[in-house]
Automatic annotation (TrEMBL):
Keywords: Lyase. GO terms for cellular component: cytosol. Belongs to the methylglyoxal synthase family. The active site is at D60. It catalyses: dihydroxyacetone phosphate = methylglyoxal + phosphate. GO terms for molecular function: methylglyoxal synthase activity. It comes from Paenibacillus darwinianus. Residues 1-140 form the MGS-like domain. This is Methylglyoxal synthase. Its EC number is 4.2.3.3. PROSITE patterns: METHYLGLYOXAL_SYNTH, MGS. GO terms for biological process: methylglyoxal biosynthetic process. HAMAP family: Methylglyoxal_synth. Substrate binds at H8, K12, T34, G35, T36, T37, S54, G55, H87. The lineage of its organism: Bacteria, Bacillati, Bacillota, Bacilli, Bacillales.
């Protein structure tokens, strides 16, 4: 599975702690992240993460491109709901793309834990079918 991590500034410590707790699950998957979040995770774990630019500098859009191509299987995006974000339109566009493509996205640790535990139990097999059978292959 292909997983992306994004965390707003005041959520980065929470993200790092979360990934440390579930490193045993994430180490079996291909990982992506926005710049600073990915750097902080790699400094605290043994995980290899493909890092994009910082979110406000285009990283959210780079991850959004993977969503639009239906490459990602899960996004953990710890948002700070109490802080206005200057790149809010990019964030909304990313979440909209996840809805369009049916990609699970967790925006808080509680949901991230549910999805990660499901991933650890092998319950994401339905995403493998999405990758195997593209919508253009479906016949009515």
């Amino acid at each position: 599975m292909q997983i992306a991590f994004i965390a707003h500034d005041r959520k980065k410590d929470e993200m790092v702690n979360f990934v440390i707790a579930y490193e045993h699950v994430f180490k079996h998957h291909k990982l992506y992240s926005t710049g600073t979040t990915g750097q902080r995770i790699m400094e605290q774990t043994g995980l290899n993460i493909h890092r994009f630019m910082s979110g406000p500098l285009g990283g959210d859009q780079q991850i959004g491109a993977l969503v639009a191509e239906n490459v990602l299987d899960l996004i953990i995006f710890l948002r700070d709901p109490l802080m206005a974000q200057p790149h809010e339109p990019d964030i909304i566009a990313l979440l909209r793309l996840c809805d369009v493509q049916g990609i699970p996205v967790a925006t808080n640790v509680a949901t991230a834990e549910l999805l990660t535990n499901s991933l650890g139990r092998g319950e994401f097999g339905w995403r493998e079918l999405v990758h195997k059978y593209k919508p253009e292959d479906w016949q009515p």
